[in-house]
Specification:
mainly alpha, 2 domains, flat
Length: 146
């Protein structure tokens, strides 16, 4: 099979892939919604389809991060913020969520609060580091062009 070289065909192929992805995601969402209504939240989360749906959403989110950084046009062209700001904001969110769990969860509150706060911290830290890295790299590329 020969690779496609015509740009119109490449764009049409990407549109077809987008359509198939949309139909697949809608189907998975409908299956999960049916399971939620019929059997409850715990049974829905136990489904392997839930894992596929979450992995798809995470992959799409990370793929869209690069596009959002490239489309970012700051009103004042200044140097991007430091990595320490990302660490502080992620730590603050992790502490707040961990504190809320600690005060609201009756069984083993400290262990659950540490786990959930740590997960929130890591889940916020990774995307903010990726975005910060791409912004710094974009700023360096723009300086090198000038």
């Amino acid at each position: 099979m020969r690779p496609i070289r015509d740009e119109r065909l490449i764009i049409q192929n990407l549109r077809n892939i987008r359509l198939a992805f949309g139909v697949q995601s809608a189907g998975i969402g409908i299956i999960l919604l049916y399971t939620l209504i019929r059997y409850g939240l715990e049974e829905m989360i136990a489904q392997p389809v839930w894992i596929v749906f979450m992995l798809t959403a995470i992959t799409l989110g990370y793929a869209n991060l690069k596009i959002s950084v490239d489309m970012d046009r700051p009103s004042n062209p200044r140097k991007p913020g430091s990595y320490y700001y990302s660490i502080l904001m992620s730590a603050a969110a992790g502490l707040i969520v961990g504190g809320l769990v600690w005060f609201s969860h009756p069984k083993e509150p400290l262990r659950d609060a540490l786990i959930i706060g740590g997960v929130v911290f890591v889940c916020l830290l990774i995307p903010s580091f990726v975005v910060s890295y791409w912004r710094h790299k974009k700023a360096q590329d723009e300086q090198n062009e000038e």
